[in-house]
Amino acid sequence: MHYVQAGKSTQTNPPIVFVHGFACTHTDWQSQLDFFSPTHSVVACDLRGHGDTPGDSHDCSIETYGADVAALVTELKFPPAILVGHSMGCRAVLQAYLYAPERVKAIVLVDGSRLGFGDPAVAERVMNEQLRATGYGVFARRLFDEMFIVSSDPKLKAALMERALQLRSEIGSTLFPRMVGWDARRMEAALAAVRVPLMVIQSTMMNAERIRVSLAATQTSSWLDLVKSRAAGARIEIVPGVGHFPQLEAPDKVNALIANFAAALK
Questions:
Q1: Most CB atoms closer than 10 Å: which of 7, 97, 100, 210?
Q2: For the whole model, what pTM was predicted?
Q3: What's the rounded Cα separation, in Å, for the pair 113 and 167?
């Protein structure tokens, strides 16, 4: 697994491990690495098949990604770490916690969602059929186009969409349905299993038409309601007025929220 590491942890400042989303890379966390490295040991990784980490389609699943993240924090000999996941990375860090709860001090989920419901096999099959019908390239363009709002930086949107299209189609078209299946199969139980402090930083939601829209400060969503029902005591923070990448579009707000959350763990 390719990863970047900086900073140094102390007895009072736990390490922070950042995990990216679907068709993304560790570079999405550069603002967070820069902000936290003076006070914390920080790591951002590339999941299998993404960025500079090799991987084939049969290697890429939420279960494998969770195992890889758990192995990383173990092999780095970190004290219990704060795991921060974005989008698909939310699933990966929840799965990592299930594999190695003793290695996790707290969890932060950045703009997560639930895409799969009901019978997991059916949810995965339906997603597979949709991808075969549209083709991965068309699907990825539509997916990332909906991740931004009108006021989003068009250069950022174009760059992230171009990067998404670099994910090999055999990986993307296999991984995304598996992620949907994981949501239906494991999401509720994974949230209910969390016994460490949990914070959700949310900027968007999926509306009734399954279209991603910006979340207002006073709004809730089916995803946030699920978190509240399965992970009692979870801290919910809304970052309004941005798209699906608040760590890139509102880094100062995201950094302040994570810093405040980390400080409260002492």
A1: 97
A2: 0.96
A3: 21
